[in-house]
Structures are given as structure tokens and as C-alpha cells.
Amino acid sequence: MAAAQRQLAWCQWAIPALTADMIVLSAVHGEQQRPGQQLAGILTTPGRWLNAAA
């Protein structure tokens, strides 16, 4: 019974913490996908490849 209570206590702490981590990571990844920045990245990538090959 004591082992089950320890496991429950751990889960009651871990589940909200992991959920908060997922929310933060989703926000970070959402910020990295701004449409205005995607076009600039698409246009500069071939130039970086050409400079790296030279």
C-alpha cells in the first residue's frame, strides 16, 4: 500500500510538470514558424549552400 501511495504522489507531481513543459515547448516551436521569417529563410538557404560549397 505504501508503494502505491508513493507512486501516486510522484504522478500527482510529474503529470502537471510534464504538461507545463509541453505547453512551453509548443509555444517555442510556434514562435519559430512565423510566416514572415519562413520566406526569408527559404530565400537565404541556397546562398548559404553555395557559400559552404565554395
SS-derived structural category: mainly alpha
Low-confidence stretches: none
Query: What kind of sheet is the major sheet?
Result: none
Q: How much helicity do the residues have?
A: over 70%
Descriptive tags:
elongated
Walk me through this protein's architecture.
The chain has 54 residues and is mainly α. Helices cover 91% and strands 0% of the residues. It has helices spanning 2-31, 35-53.
What's a concise summary of this model?
With 54 residues, this protein is mainly alpha-helical. 91% of the residues lie in helices and 0% in strands. The radius of gyration is 22 Å and the shape is elongated.
Secondary-structure map:
Layout: H1 2-31, H2 35-53
